[in-house]
Write a structure and sequence with these properties.
alpha/beta; 15 helices; binds iron/sulfur cluster
């Protein structure tokens, strides 16, 4: 469906976002359209959120569909649920747009299976930095509640990557909750989404022009923020000396990779015994350069990670949230990802139909290399 003919369905009680979305899922579970819904819920200590698979419609009232922080990317939670392939239950999962993009990337890597999952997303005001929220959960709840009430997509209180996120709205989900003035509109975005609206006997007759115009305006502001930020980040991320300076206080804890939804390998080379040098290797390096900083190979870890996953980085910011020494890891990786994805004309998680460049080689990509392959093939043919 093209954007200019796409219509939305007006949700009841549209002025309270959290309540309206919860009501929608409660109704859908009661009507047996889903066996369970995966939503965030506050943990008993009150200072974080966890992903909960909720079967009982009565328990849904305790969930907080739009959580102020993102301790775990929903794609990671869904990966754990669908790890063994298609299940026998119909699941709904509501996620931020960057989490949807991570999910789409993981489906291409056979880490998430969406056969029995319907993906929902929403216009995202951003997430608060984790450390700020943990320091003052009540203040964080108040701040985030106001962002939702004001439908403020330009807050300075959200994570640095959220301030420059220009993909904060409609994404590759099946259905999308759009926040327009006082209304909440549900937009179907796939055959699965259309079917759900048909099963609910809901008509999509609400005009989306006003909402789309507003989203386009915010997107322009975010694109400008991103361009300005990346001009600064470029000097932190490009070149060996800059990388050494940027990661000079890295303690090698690898929290950034273990929190990243895209770093899915069960055994990371950098955590393996092969990558842990013995005293001979340390001394050899110290001898070569006069001294060796410990732990060894910090830059190799970061550049190795960039090489492995920057095509699929979705700028969710979890790596920065997880860094104990406040390195702006997410900004660095987002910048590198923007360059890698541009080179391959790829946008991580934008569409399930776009092949992952690492999995599908095109002869004409990276021109020079393509030419080399062609001439080698021609040579081979002439030798036959
Ligand atoms: S590198 Fe950081 S910003 Fe990119 S997907 Fe991983 S955790 Fe998210
Ligand atoms: S989380 Fe921070 S300190 Fe830990 S390895 Fe990553 S960049 Fe280094």
């Amino acid at each position: 469906m093209t954007d200019n003919i796409r219509k939305g369905t007006l949700l009841k009680n549209g002025d309270d976002i959290q309540a309206s979305i919860l009501q929608f899922f409660q109704d859908a579970v009661e009507k047996k359209l889903f066996d369970a819904v995966m939503l965030p819920m506050k943990v008993p200590s009150g200072d974080s959120f966890a992903w909960i698979m909720i079967k009982d419609a009565a328990v849904l009232k305790d969930a907080q569909p739009l959580a102020p922080i993102m301790p775990v990317n929903a794609a990671t939670a869904l990966k754990r649920y669908t790890r063994k392939g298609k299940g026998k239950f119909k699941i709904a999962a509501l996620m931020k747009p960057c989490e949807i993009r991570a999910t789409i990337e993981l489906t291409k890597l056979n880490q998430v299976h969406l056969d029995d999952v319907t993906l929902f997303t929403y216009d995202c005001v951003g997430a608060l930095p984790m450390q700020d929220y943990i320091a003052d959960p009540e203040g964080g709840d108040e701040k985030f509640g106001k962002l939702l009430t004001d439908k403020n997509f330009k807050s300075k209180d959200v994570k640095p990557v959220c301030k420059i996120c220009d993909k904060f709205s409609l994404s590759a989900s099946d259905l999308h909750f759009a926040f327009s003035d006082k209304d909440i509109l549900l937009i179907s975005n796939s055959e699965k989404g259309e079917k759900l609206l048909t099963d609910l006997d809901w008509k999509a007759d609400a005009d989306l022009k006003k909402w789309q115009k507003h989203i386009d305006e915010i997107t322009k502001i975010k694109v400008k923020n991103k361009t300005d930020t990346f001009k600064i980040v470029k000097d932190m991320a490009e070149g060996y000396d800059n990388l050494v300076e940027t990661f000079s206080n890295c303690i090698g804890c690898h929290n950034c990779s273990s929190s990243c939804p895209i770093c899915y390998c069960r055994q990371c080379y950098f955590d393996s015994s092969v990558a842990k040098p013995n005293s001979d290797v340390v001394m050899m390096r110290a001898e070569e350069r006069g001294a060796a900083s410990l732990p060894l190979d910090r830059i190799m870890f970061h550049t190795g990670r960039m090489a492995h996953m920057s095509l699929s980085c979705v700028s969710c910011g979890l790596c920065s949230d997880a860094c104990p020494v406040n390195i702006p890891v997410a900004k660095i990786f987002s910048y590198v990802a923007s360059q890698t994805q541009k080179a391959f004309e790829y946008s991580a998680g934008a569409s399930a139909g776009d092949a992952l460049p690492m999995k599908e080689y095109k002869l004409n990509e990276l021109g020079e290399l393509g030419e080399l392959v062609k001439s080698a093939e021609a040579q081979e043919e002439s030798n036959e």
